[in-house]
Amino acid sequence: MATTPTDPMDDIDEDAAARGAVYATLAKAFEYPEESFHSAAADGTLEADLRACLDRTGLNVAVPSLTTDDDYKTLAARYNDIFELGYSEYTDRTDGSLEAEGPPVPLYESKYRPDHSWNDVNLDLSRAYSHYGLEIDQDERDNHDALTYELEFAGYLARREAAVGEDAAIARLDFHDRHLGHAAAGVADRLADEPGTDIYGGFGELLEAFVRADRNDLADRLEDRR
Amino acid sequence: MSRNDLTDDEADSAGISRRDFVRGLGAASLLGATGLSFADDGMDGLEAVDDPIGNYPYRDWEDLYRDEWDWDSVARSTHSVNCTGSCSWNVYVKDGQVWREEQAGDYPTFDESLPDPNPRGCQKGACYTDYVNADQRVLHPLRRTGERGEGQWERISWDEALTEIADHVIDEVQAGRYDAISGFTPIPAMSPVSFASGSRLVNLLGGVSHSFYDWYSDLPPGQPITWGTQTDNAESADWHNSDYIIAWGSNINVTRIPDAKYFLDAGYEGAKRVGVFTDYSQTAIHTDEWLSPHGGSDTALALGMAQTIVDEGLHDEAHLKEQTDMPLLVREDTGKFLRASEVGLAEDADDPEKVFVMVDADGNLRRAPGSLGERDGQHDHSKSIELDFDPQLSVERSVDTDEGSVAVRSVWENLTDELSQYTPAVVHEETGVGENTYQRIAREFAEADAAKIIHGKGVNDWYHNDLGNRAIQLLVTLTGNLGDPGTGLDHYVGQEKIWSFHGWQVLSFPTGNVRGVPTTLWTYFHAGILDNTDPDTAEKIRESIDKGWMPVYPEERDDGNRPDPSTMFVWRGNYFNQAKGNVALEEQLWPKLDLVVDINFRMDSTAMYSDIVLPAASHYEKYDLSETDMHTYVHPFTPAVEPLGEAKTDWEIFRLLAEKIQERAQERGVEPVEDRKFDRTIDLTTIYDDYVRDWETGEEEGLVEDKAAAEFILEHSEETNPEGSDEQITFDDIDEQPQRFLEAGDHWTSDIKDGEAYVPWQDYVHDKNPWPTFTGRQQYYIDHDWYLELGEELPTHKEGPEDTGGDYPLSYNTPHGRWSIHSTWRDSTKMLRLQRGEPVVYLNPEDAEERGIEDGDTVEVYNDLGSVEVQAKIYPSSEPGTVRHFFSWEKFQYPDRDNFNTLVPMYMKPTQLVQYPEDTGEHLHFFPNYWGPTGVNSDVRVDIRPSGGDTE
Ligand code: SF4
Fold first, then answer.
1. Quick one: pLDDT band at residue A8, thresholds 50, 70, 90?
2. Tens digits of residue pLDDT in B927-937
3. Nearest residue to A73 (alpha-carbon basis) of B142, B151, B154
């Protein structure tokens, strides 16, 4: 669709727009890989352009390696193994604790909120999405707390901040504190413990670092407005 | 920095409007990040239904809560998990998501004197939402990339998955191996449309439909043997009509949670409730009296009670004379019934050799009315068993036959002889139950106005379950407790049949030619039982197959070869996990299968060990019907929400597969194949058209949608659309409120009556139609050669097979647990939190102490077949000598993937392989879920030791 504009940043807040692009990229990265994602990851353009995007954000976030030597099938299988295939497994037989549900690194916020019920997490998100007139596509629906929805929503709010109004920045900060911050830290933690994550290990680090940096920056900016 | 310079819809030089930008379209490209263009559709999971740049003022999070909360919709649904509950629930939906469920509580009351039927439910059903939303849902078609069970998968598209399966199926059918294609799915009543989905396709393919009721050892073989009927029982509301209830091995408070109130309430009405359980079970604690026979000794206890009843003259003589085979004469020399043809009676009958003989009060020989030889088949209600003479129960004499004088005795004489062995001393010795106690219970039972036995799995899983059933049945027969409110022997284990039978049957098997197979035999045969059992059993299995009493598929070919099964579809069940003889199944049967396809909403053990897993809609995402023999209502599943991810309903999945097979068959130009056994042609080029055609009306594409299939069942069943009546139950009716069935079709043994709880057997007891047995009566004497050879012509107590699993000191059994319905919810966090959270065995404190085992220790349970590592729980309510492993944990919940069935060998009882009469089989013939060998498992021996102990 779009071609590269000559001077697109005249019209919108470039920093917020770039953050929006990073969130959109992360959302795609944590979705089941498509061929286009794989080829960008394999030929290095993903990493290079993500770096460029981050440079335009004013955030100081180190970018880990985001390339892969996997062929497409291997990458897809890796994604499945890490994020998708769920069944019960012992995590610790000495105390009988059981990871009863889900894959090694579940991509749902509620899995990382031991003190919050699934309903509380998801209802809160449902409220947030619907406040902004957003709904989950029912053709292939997932739960409200799916990480990709949260990242899409974070991207949406960032782009709103860039192109519509600054009050979105406050919503972004609250969203980080209430949801995305927990999901990002949880996913990154689990990924760090998981062997054989390849490119997803890098994305886990970036996710956590970027979300944290964005949140802290927002908090600084909005300190007196809260 | 500037913003808001773009007009909202006007595109900038890059072709992006502000609205598009905020929606996320082309946002990466706008930044010049072409390497991120894969992310240019910045929101494809979330959709902007309102204006993305609209005015959504935000000051703080509270703003999001200003809109009043209201559910978008409330849908009616239930659970399809073989729980027999069939409880109607309301499912609450907001923003395309299910948030909670609540018992619907609107079953109409049909008898004001009974407790309110509402609400029904259990704690598992109350958290099914967790499964709908769970991340162990299978969301996409998956193809195995590693070894079976390794858990390595790739996501594939629906088209890829269906094409691969379709091509495989086409190859099999074209090679004549359509009978190597199996479909396993249990329990139609819990969701008949979903049951029918795959069964219909398998039927059109000429494939094999598997039985389940016998395989799960839910079928009480004593009922077809004695009553000629698969099973029939009262709805649970009828418990309340009893004056005396014995819960015999049926742990109602755990396994019948929605119905348990009727058992408890009956007590308030003055009914005495007795529990017969080896352990002080969760139901035993609520009874007035608890009897604890040794495991496997129920038969001796029942026969002891029968002896008391007979000895003290408490039996119902009129019932025995009219309704049972007790007055029939048996030849002393052969052990066979004396036939009317032998004594020149009943010459007008179609087959006097199948007419039986009684002696009237004057000593004259009389033909027994209603015998098979004068009936037109098994069920013939044009004949009657009503007697116009008074037969003698006790007969011992000789009769003149064409072969000369023959000594005969009545069944009653034979039976009383048999019973006389069960003296109080013997019964106490065999069962451990006090001599006075069991005799008093027998007396009370016989003297109660309306007495009932609720019979369960605790009795039915033993090798000699047929003898156990027959002995316990004898108690209700002797006392005439059949056919009236509050009476009967209610065997509630699994769900054998479905109320709306005809509609379900013609939907599932449109060709009318069904390759049904007894799953116990099929499984064990292909897992090598012939080389792994005693010679006598092996010989009898061969004989049964050779004589055509029991089928095994694939059929033996003309050249004497029998191909291996090649293909298996499993849906709505966890066959691989639940299979007894698990080690042999995994090692011998599974490798024979070239393609295993599992259709599932979650990754259970069968899915794990499949080749392709197709994501199925959950119970809150589809249309279907729900029925149970615990009640007489029908209510629906309706889709509260869209299926999660790429999941589809079972009906849609098999319909799409039919469509793909047709498409590929046409592309490949395959020719129709003549069916080897049935008079039909298997034409894959029209299989989709056949699948969606309504075969009853001929309407093309009448059954595309699953709702249409549900309506088809209601339309074509006597229970919901009775002949000769304007009344009809439609899908809309049941969506409005559960509806009570209008009639009972002829696969039930009583009518459904207004204002009365359903009670079986009235067709025979009140209407005097012949029982569907050889003799036309409740038949306690079976003169089949094998029964005579094994000394089982009458119910008798026998020790079970020795050393099942090896010579070990402890008995091992696998009862149904409280926190799961079979394997469903075994992996539910909520349920795991209510228990130990991992596979656990219950041990008597003495057994544990002897072995140095403490509560919470990790232990190994082992026998010759294998060993499983589990946690020990000290259970003082257990009798010493028994290891109780409440099933059915998933394979992957054990460290080595061995599971509770690893310790259970393949074994089955030859008496359940017969046809009777041997030549024509009207009384006992193989029919899926009606008659076939049961997959018994309670005779297993094991020992237990702390984990890490020595291996012997
Ligand atoms: S799981 Fe079964 S018993 Fe429990 S609520 Fe659902 S339908 Fe009823």
1. very low
2. 999 999 999 99
3. B154
Tell whether B898 is covered by a domain. Answer: yes
In chain B, whose CA is at the least distance from the CA of A143? B133
Q: How many CB atoms lie within 10 A of CB B673?
A: 18
CB B628 within 8 A of CB B85: yes
| Cβ-Cβ contacts under 8 Å, A124 against chain B | 64
- Give the torsion sign (CA, B598, B604, B610, B615): positive
Taking residue B165's Cβ as centre, other Cβ atoms within 10 Å add up to 22
User: A128 φ, ψ to 5°?
Assistant: -65, -50
**Per-residue tokens: B777:** 């009566």
Q: Count up the domains in chain B and report the number.
A: 3
Contacts of B747 (CB under 8 A, 6+ apart): B497, B501
Q: What is the SS3 string spanning B865-903?
A: CCEEEEEEEECCCCCCCEEECCECCCHHHCCCCCCHHHH
SS3 of residue B941 by DSSP: strand
Q: Give the minimum alpha-carbon distance from A57 to chain B in angstroms, rounded to a whole number.
A: 11
Q: Where are the alpha helices (DSSP H) in B695-730?
A: 706-715
Domain CATH number, residue B251:
3.40.228.10
The reply to whether ligand 1 has any atom less than 6 angstroms from the CB of B190 is no
Alpha-carbon span A179 to A145, nearest angstrom: 9
- Domain positions in chain A are 8-221
Long-range pairs for B538-545 at CB < 8 Å and ≥24 separation?
Answer: B540/B786, B540/B910, B540/B913, B541/B908, B541/B910, B541/B913, B544/B910, B544/B913, B544/B914, B545/B521
What's the token pair of residue B50?
Answer: 């309102």
Across the strands, what pairs with B144?
Answer: B153
Instruction: Please state the pTM of the whole predicted model.
Output: 0.94
In a domain, B694, yes or no: no
- What is each CA distance from B784 to B336, B546, B820, in whole angstroms? 8, 17, 41
Using CA positions, which residue lies closest to atom 2 of ligand 1? B85
- Count of CB atoms within 10 A of residue B728's CB? 12
Instruction: Extract the runs of DSSP E, i.e. beta strands, from B161-237.
Output: 181-184, 208-210
Where does a domain end: B466, B491, B516?
B491
Q: Nearest chain A residue to B137 by CA: give it.
A: A86
User: Which strands, in side-by-side order, build the sheet including B89-94?
Assistant: B73-77, B89-94, B97-103
- CATH architecture assigned to A8-221: Orthogonal Bundle (1.10)
- Please indicate whether, in this complex, the C-beta atoms of B642 and A141 are within 8 angstroms of each other: yes
From A38's Cα to the closest Cα of chain B, the distance in A is 9
B805-847, pLDDT tens digit by residue? 999 999 999 999 999 999 999 988 888 888 888 899 999 999 9
pLDDT less than 70: residues of chain B: 1-15, 135, 949-952
Range of the domain at B2: 1-56
Query: What is the pairing mode between strands B633-637 and B595-600?
Result: unpaired
Q: What is the distance between the alpha carbons of residues B889 and A143, in angstroms, rounded to a whole number?
A: 27
Q: Which of A5, A81, A148 sits opposite B45 (nearest CB)?
A: A148
Whole-angstrom Cα distance, residue B434 to residue B411?
Answer: 29
Q: Which among B859, B832, B855, B858 has a CA at the least distance from the CA of B844?
A: B855
Calculate ∠ Cα B337-B339-B342, nearest 5°.
Answer: 130
For CA atoms B832, B833, B835, B840, the dihedral sign is positive
And the tokens for A74?
Answer: 């291997």
What is the C-alpha separation between B614 and B606, in angstroms, rounded?
12
Contact B598, B606 (CB under 8 A): yes
Task: Assess contact for A77 and B145: CB atoms under 8 A.
Answer: yes
Only one residue has tokens 């050669």, namely: B785
Residue B673: phi and psi, rounded to 5, are: -120, 135
Indicate the residue among B428, B459, B491 that finishes a domain.
B491
Residue of the nearest CA to atom 3 in ligand 1? B85
Query: What SS3 class is residue B422?
Result: coil
